Amino acid sequence: MKKSIVTMGILLSTSGFIFAQEKQAANTAKSQDSIQNPKNKTKDIEEVVIIAYGTQKKGEVTGSVGRVSAESFKDRPIARVDQALTGQIAGVKTRATSGKPGEPLEIRVRGTASISASNSPLYVIDGMVADDMANVSPDDVQSIEVLKDAASTAMYGSRGSNGIVIVTTKKGISGKPSFSFSQYYGVQTIEKKLDIMTSSEWIDYATESINKRWVALAPGNSASDSYAVRANYLNLANTTNYNLANVNYMIDPRWGTDQVAYIDWQDAFYRPAAIQNYQLSVRGGSKDVKYAISASYFDQEGLALNTGFNRYNLSAVVDINISDKWKAGIALRPSYSQSYGAAVDGKDNEAHKMLSMVPVAELSAGLYTNFWKNDRYRWASSSQSSIGVLENTTNNTNEFRLLSSLYMSYDILPGLNFKISGGATNNFNLNNSYTPTFNLITNIPGQVSIASRRTVNYNRYLGEALLNYKKTFGNHSIAALAGYSAENYRTTSQYNRNKGFPNDDLKTFNFTQSASVLNSEYTVSEWMLVSMFGRVNYDYKKKYMLFASIRRDGSSRFGWNNLWGTFAAFGSAWKIDEEEFLQDKTWLSNLKLRYSWGENGNNNIGDYRAFGTLSGGNYSFGGNLSNGLIPNTIANPNLTWEKTQSSDFGFELGLFNRIDFTADYYIKKTNDLLLQQPIPFATGYNIMWKNVGSVQNTGLELDLSTKNLTGAFRWNTSANIAFNNNKVLQLGSDNAPIYTGFSSSTNIIKVGEELNSFYLYEAIGVLSTADLTNTGVAKTAGAIAGDVKYKDFNGDGKITEDDRHIIGSPTPDYYWGFTNTFSYKGFDLSVFFQGQKGGYSYALLGRAIDRTSMGTTTNVMGNWANRWRSDENPGDGRTPRLDGTTGSLLDTRWLYDATYIQLKNVTLGYNFEQELVNKLKISNLRVYVSLENVWRKDHYYGGYNPESVQSDGTDYGAYPNAKVYMMGLNFNF
After folding, report:
1. Is this model's pTM higher than 0.85 or not?
2. CB 850 within 8 A of CB 894
3. Burial level of 537, CB count in 10 A (0-12/13-18/19+)?
């Protein structure tokens, strides 16, 4: 915790200023609010928050619930609702694993609790369970609640172990129609370029490598030998035809002249890109019928050429009071989205290839080197121009989604209500891809072209019945809930991939025109969940609160011996400020202690893991091969739920109606992990799914919000910070470690360590000539001067596999968010910082273009300009020689501290005076400018963004994030 002192000092310094200010105010005039009405100290606590299957006053909540209101993100250029959570709630960690337009964020609530099952939270939109928040436009959102502890999430039982994200949308209002319009338009630029060699640096790099080979070829050869001398030695008849040059021994004499093209591939590959959004909504109704209807359009060009995403959203929500006892409602949220562009991020995809492109090309080819009828540059690899690939590849994904729900409720008796509801999620996804024949020197159009088509239909149906009871008698209040739900999920998928077409003119998939079929697949999967649940809340004098719940779930994903899981929770709270001895303390607006315990489950491991499945195979019948089926997995009838038990200790403090502080300490332990385990070969199989092992997360979360200045000039601050410690407690009966990451080699899951800890050789410098003869320096077999020097971890005097060891993990020590808002008259300013301390990122992209002995036909990272050349010229002391022997080892040269601090958003807005607004016959008018991803300070050299990593902390070239500069306009009429 020592490392947190500085950060906490920054976050709480504002609080110190406010305490001093309030102390002076209390000794003089005090707060007028408190003098006139001391009971105003509870006004903020009476805020209603959304909980599982209902609402509750904030002061009565016994669990840990974080909240984000629409006001906090209404002026930000966010494409998805999940982006609004970044840095806003302690214990909720979001990461943009890719900057690709339209991509979702990874969300983790209180750490990673599972190894093989999902770690994503459950999403609930207006009471209906959903897979994500893609169907909802950010402009339609009223608030987002995140249920963090088990007491809050246990009502969702089998799916609550990773937290619950509840989205509440805007509803209709009584009165005449109220229209609102909002729009913004902005320009995106790449947040950061990678440091790769410039053309002059690469030329020097290639020259050194070629000269070394030339000198070693024959006695008497010199690095100063001319192109002609080398051509004659190699018996090349035409010394001016550079396409005949032997690039292993000959240097291009045009280097450094204007006879070749010099290219910055990143500048050509990434471009300024537009982003825009438009939303029109209307809300209104009468006493008995209320409606909210909206339509929006979002369009985001990708930073990479010919990539992008656009989405159309509609939303219609109607609530009806049929009579004094009957109510009904319906909500329809269709959306249609399109994403397009060749695959950019990931291993061997276009960003990786682009960064590897030699920054020199023939003048006649330029950006289109080795593309269409252009020859490749002789000193470059056979990679085709990434610019040409992006511009000419078709890869379009169209998705139609419909989220629909309806309900009807009946007040049986005063305080007793029965409600039935149903909902459906229907998704249709179509991907069409066409890669034309790019090499027209050896092929004709269409000859090696590849087309593919994938369709995915996903349907989820949910039905629920709820019985609610509320009763207050004297100082006692009871709220009880009983419910039943049933869900069905079905997915069908079809995939076809063919090669060879008559030409490249018609980029439409046609089975009959292709020369060969590469893939043809059709799959169906289905599962069900049936649940019964109940909850009771009790409070006495609004001071002492108790809560208990139980839920029983049956999932078809588990073995027939263990289909059912039972999950219980309880919680308690004490509102100390409501005690008589504190009633007259107007400076104390809230003092509350909370404790909760509960158990949740996790069944998100995919379908049919508990059952023996079959695959296609051939067998001999009558001397001929016949088609048949063979078993390919073994059944486990005892496979059952992962179970997460969680305890939460909460403390809340409110002072002067201007300071609110919350602290939560939690212990979260997951047992019966769902893992694939080795089994005896005598069974005929080598692995099966079992419930083994456990993982624990413990953490501390702190939230602080303050009203620093009030009056004409207002200044508010909100800050949060979260610490989380992760540890593996058990892994099967023998606790054998599990190797994960790149090639199952960069990471390890081991008892006593954090999940996905990095397991690497530790690079400590570069070997000198003297080191080779020094027996005290451990070396790899066959090491030469200029190779990477490694730490001899086991002390045996040599570097072997046994010297790999654990060095950090992807889990940060803590992460935080810090927002200040200022307003004066019609102006307002918001400044939002967020970041993290600790954790590591492993730059596999950097490694892919940063290894020794890669040759010079590709480009490499810029640090190779400072490589080891000799004992007298050792470079930066970290980068080895270009022709070393350790290029295959996975070491810490590509492991980076993932600490960063980012100025995430700055927004300056102006609300026009009412007099002008009235003349325009509208109710309000606001304009603003907003900057997103304004500035970042990090230690990440091997990739675009330290956050853009997979769950194991590895980054193979994620799509870069964008800086966004935009202007917006909002008005109502």
Report:
1. yes
2. yes
3. buried
Which residues 6+ apart lie within 8 Å of 682 measured at CB? none
Taking the CB of residue 332, how many other CB atoms lie within 10 A of it? 15
404-439 pLDDT tens trace: 999 999 999 999 999 999 999 999 999 999 999 999
CB count, 10 Å around CB of 216?
A: 10
3-state helix, strand, coil in the chain (%, to 5): 15, 45, 40
Q: What angle do CA 948, 954, 956 make, to 5 degrees?
A: 70
Contacts of 220 (CB under 8 A, 6+ apart): none
Give the Cα separation of 955 and 822 in Å (integer): 38
CB distance 123 to 116 below 8 Å: no
Sign of the C-alpha dihedral computed for residues 253, 255, 258 and 259 taken in this order: positive
Q: What are phi and psi of 485, to 5 degrees?
A: -145, 155
Q: Which amino acid is at 717?
A: T
Alpha carbon distance 941, 842 (integer Å): 10
For residue 241, give every residue at least 6 positions away whose Cβ sits within 8 Å of its Cβ, in sequence order, or none: none
Q: Report how far residue 952's alpha carbon sits from residue 456's, in angstroms, rounded to the nearest whole number.
A: 28
pLDDT tens, position by position, 295-309: 999 999 999 999 999
User: Distance (Å, rounded) from C-alpha 939 to C-alpha 842?
Assistant: 12
3-state secondary structure 181-198: EEEEEEEEEECCCCCECC
- What amino acid is encoded at 310 in this protein? N
Dist. CA 74–CA 924, nearest whole Å: 15
Spatial distance between the Cα atoms of 797 and 356, rounded to a whole number of angstroms: 37
CB 455 within 8 A of CB 398: no
How far, in Å, CA of 66 to CA of 103, rounded? 24
Single-letter amino acid code for the residue at 884: G
Q: Two tokens at 710?
A: 């009030």
